Amino acid sequence: MNRAVDVLVVGAGPAGLALAAGLAAAGAGRVEVLERDEHAGGIPRQCHHGGFGRAGALGDPGALADLLGLGAYGATARLRRQAERGRPDSALGLRGPAYARRAVAAAVAAGAVVRTGVCATGWAGPLSLETTGPAGPERITARVVVLATGARERPRSARLVPGSRPAGVLTTGELQQSVHLYGQSVGRRAVVVGAEPVARHAVRTLRRSGAEVVAMLTGHRRATALPGVPLLTATTVAELRGRGRLSGVAVRHEDGRSGLLACDTVVFTGDWIPDHELARRGGIALDAGTRGPSVDGAFRTATPGVFAVGNALRGVERAATAAAEGAAATGPVLARLAGAPWPEPGARLDVRAPLAWVTPNRIVEPAVRPLLLRSGEPLDHPVVTASQDGRPLWRRRFPGPVSPSRSLRLSPGWTARVDPSGGPVVLSLG
Amino acid sequence: MSLTTAGALPGGTYDVTVVGAGVVGSAVARELARLPLRIALVDAADDVGDGTSKANTAILHTGFDAVPGSLEARLVRDGQRMLAAYAAESGIPVEPLGALLVAWDEEQRAALPGLADKAVRNGYRAARLAPAEEVRAREPELGPGVLGALDVPGESVICPWTTTLAYATQAVRAGVDLHLNCPVTGVAPGDPHTVATGRGVLRTRYLVNAAGLYADRIDRLLGHAEFTVTPRRGQLIVFDELARGLVRHILLPVPGALGKGVLVSPTVYGKVVLGPTAEDLDDKTATGSTAEGIALLREKGRRILPALLDEEVTAVYAGLRAATEHEDYAIRSHPARRYVAVGGIRSTGLTASMAIAAHVVELLAEGGLPTAGARDLEPVRMPNLGEAFPRPYRDAAMIASDPEYGRIVCHCERVTRGEIRDALAGTVPPGSPDGLRRRTRARAGRCQGFHCGAAVRALFEEARR
Ligand SMILES: Cc1cc2nc3c(=O)[nH]c(=O)nc-3n(C[C@H](O)[C@H](O)[C@H](O)COP(=O)(O)OP(=O)(O)OC[C@H]3O[C@@H](n4cnc5c(N)ncnc54)[C@H](O)[C@@H]3O)c2cc1C
Questions:
Q1: Chain B positions in Cβ-Cβ contact with residue A12 (cut-off 8 Å)
Q2: Distance between CA B442 and CA B164 in Å, rounded?
């Protein structure tokens, strides 16, 4: 069956829903959101912890700006700091599932059509997607396609961890779904690989399911421990052991010492990669650093009519950030629907190690929102510089430590000095 | 029709018992199922094909490079034809991609004409030398330095999981008793033989030993010591489906002193495999991968297809070839004992399986097994796991008749709830979520269960209740 809509959003997570809500509310015509899962809401559905925005302020599904807009940044950062001081989850505002429900309700109330159990499997034309669902295959053509497909954690195999292939080897995503959505028991003694916020959530989920967490480990030299959980830094997994069921994790410290942690469960956390299958199958240019679609400050990919928002751009940021991107893309999408031309790609943004990625990836016109910059390693008081064709554009010192699991926000003013037709803009340290 | 996974074994005497439900044992049981006899197929594992048969390179070989005149050469050549025909009839995915044996240095180039001659001596006449320009045109992503290739158009890739399952399914439907979780621990030879298993005693007049890596142990239980199995580990890396466009043929290495070497090949599941290593070990359970193995494969792979290394890895696994001290299959018949040992089925057993089965039944007949009254088996039709053939999620008619085929559970591999339901209700249902993966591809994709692991496990456990 062939159908046409005005805007087709792929992915009903925070980013896709926020954008759909904004567009529908602005009268963009038929705005359809496809969700391959049986339920809309995205990753927050499986996150039974707080930190998803201010409770109370979100009662009205019409309060879009508050729920999904930029205002959420400050609030969640503050609430996060409270969390780190040991406040219970309930003090942190909404839990994931409640946040997801409200995001769906907001999009639906605004007039967007959210279809679950429908998977976009490939492209039938530049702005046409092939889909499958219980009602059968379809071809849906849109005036604008938005990729809001989110991210996933790289599993043990992609990380090239050697050893046997027993049961009991999970990612945080599988762990959270098993425990929170299916009430399955996962194991009794667990090791968590990673020590970032996602790893800490994995520890809490494991404990809630009745498992003892034997250790957390990270290859970084520095990380924040959780009370009651031994933390091994500068340590990597050398091998998984066990037949049938995991029996242990062999670990190695960077100084050469090694050991075996007896356990029946191991959770690999936090090594994120955008779900970029559709983007690649559609020939949409990716950015080498983020591995997500390369976008300019208005979320335009290099392919006319195709936008990308949220974690599909670069792996994980908090839900509020993804939603804010969705909301911020509303204007550019409306402009495109009104006939705005697709600009030339502009100047590329590149990073130098240890910086890992930056988004947006291109500067067409001066950016209006902060840029997100991620380091691959922990840094102290980094000085970040931007230059183009050997010409310094900007320089700033960031006070305090920088973690590889949190992005730096670069205020966008300096991008006015970028020459859109010039060479790559290089972001580096020092 | 019966399948048991627990409890005492049925009484009475079987005419033939096959030990080992790998691809070889299952093929033998299927061949025997044509006869009006009472047959048992037993395996220590909770599923069929859980040994070497699940973890190999999955090439349907022409046998062009076998040792001319060997038993292996004959059985691979015949088996290739038999299995290709059987696959077409029963829906086992096979992709006839053709192979290129790529020469990267002068020594390898010099070896190509000899290999072409050897192919002819093995009865394979379609191999020909291809110059460097042609190779480059046919495989544009190959790394620099290609000097030429031997073009072997008859090589194919196949689904090893569906193959074993098809044999076992057909055997069980034709009346074979399949006993899983049933390790053979002792044999008191006699007439009948008394076979001790983890689930009690089984009596059988004829015995076929197709126990793969453990075939030497079974052999010794009967008082023979004709071969010793030395596991030869092969580690492999599977790259994501998004890498599939990088390669069009099976890219074989030119064999050197150190064995067959590392290949790059598409899989029938639409991915790309790099491997295998060849490591002689003494531990028959050492099916783990190692840091050294992975590093070696990556180094070789970078030379063959540099762009491959930038792609995401979906799986790393290892299989153990049942090598012996003999340079050929060690298939030994002991007519007086009513016993056939099928040993040393090394790196070609998947291809040769049907021919091995026919050979084994001939040997049993020579030893007195009555083979009158053979009948044709009811054909099987297996669900398609191949990416190059219509998958249910794309099939409008199938979804219209049953919407469960439109409900995708595993999104990376596009596996629907309908397929999972069917597999769980199959004649030989899976014994674990991994067995379910081998029947459906569920959880075999890039996310390895990040999205669907919990849902698939829930479906598996629900079906067991
Ligand atoms: C890395 C690698 C790559 C390969 N590539 C190819 C290829 O491309 N093409 C090809 O044709 N072949 C290939 N092969 C070879 C092929 O996989 C084997 O030849 C084939 O699987 C042998 O089948 P089998 O039934 O003899 O052994 P297995 O598959 O190992 O089956 C033996 C069975 O016996 C059972 N068993 C053992 N002991 C007992 C006991 N005491 N009681 C009960 N049950 C028992 C085991 O549980 C097992 O299920 C490859 C092999 C490897 C390792």
A1: none
A2: 18
Please give the backbone phi and psi of residue B281, each rounded to the nearest 5 degrees, phi first: -125, 175
B52 Cα–ligand 1 center, Å: 3
pLDDT at B258: 61
Question: Does the pLDDT of residue A75 top 60, yes or no?
Answer: no
pLDDT tens-digit profile of B67-124? Answer: 999 999 999 999 999 999 999 999 999 999 999 999 999 999 999 999 999 999 999 9
- Tokens 């183009």 correspond to what residue? A388
Helical H segments across A180-295, by residue range: 197-208, 277-281
Residues of B in contact with A274 (CB under 8 A): none
Q: Is residue B416 classed exposed, middle or buried when 0-12, 13-18 and 19+ CB atoms within 10 A define those classes?
A: buried
- pLDDT confidence of residue A222: 87
Please judge whether B399 and A173 are an interchain contact, meaning their C-beta atoms are less than 8 angstroms apart.
no
Asked if the domains A2-153+272-337 and A157-268 are classified in one and the same CATH topology, the answer is: yes
CA separation for the pair B301, B274 (Å, rounded): 7
> How confident is the model over B426-452, as a mean pLDDT?
96
Environment class of A248 (CB within 10 Å of its CB; exposed 0-12, middle 13-18, buried 19+): buried
The whole-number average pLDDT for the span A385-402 is 96
What CATH number labels A157-268?
3.50.50.60
Between the CA of residue B166 and those of A216, B79, B160, B229, what are the distances in Å?
44, 16, 10, 27
Residue from B17, B57, B77 to probe ligand 1 pocket by mutation (most atoms less than 8 Å from CB): B57
- Give dist(CA A341, CA B269) in Å, integer: 41
Instruction: Indicate the fold that domain A2-153+272-337 takes in CATH.
Output: FAD/NAD(P)-binding domain (3.50.50)
Q: Are A13 and A95 in contact (CB under 8 A)?
A: no
- Predicted ipTM? 0.94
Q: Which residues pair with A7 in a beta bridge?
A: A31, A144
- Which H or E element spans position B457? helix B453-464
The CA–CA distances, whole Å, from A288 to A346, A357, B404 equal 16, 8, 38
For residue B326, indicate whether it is catalytic: no
E strand intervals along B365-439: 408-410, 415-416
Residue A79 scores a pLDDT above 70: no
Nearest residue to A235 via CA among A259, A212, A214: A259
- Judge if the beta carbon of residue B62 lies within 6 A of ligand 1: no
B314's tokens: 């979906």
Reading the block at residue A418, the tokens are 């970028």
Partner residue opposite B447 with nearest CB, options A155, A238, A243: A155
Distance B379 CA to ligand 1 centre (A): 24
Name B100's bridge partners.
B151, B251
A83 has a pLDDT exceeding 50: no
Q: Give the active site residue among B61, B249, B334, B359.
A: B61
Residue B45 Cα to chain centre, angstroms:
16
Q: What is the pLDDT of residues B204-263, one digit of tens each?
A: 999 999 999 999 999 999 999 999 999 999 999 999 999 999 999 999 999 876 666 899
Domain chopping of chain A, boundaries: 2-153+272-337, 157-268, 347-429
B176 DSSP assignment: P
DSSP B358-374: HHHHHHHHHTT---TT-
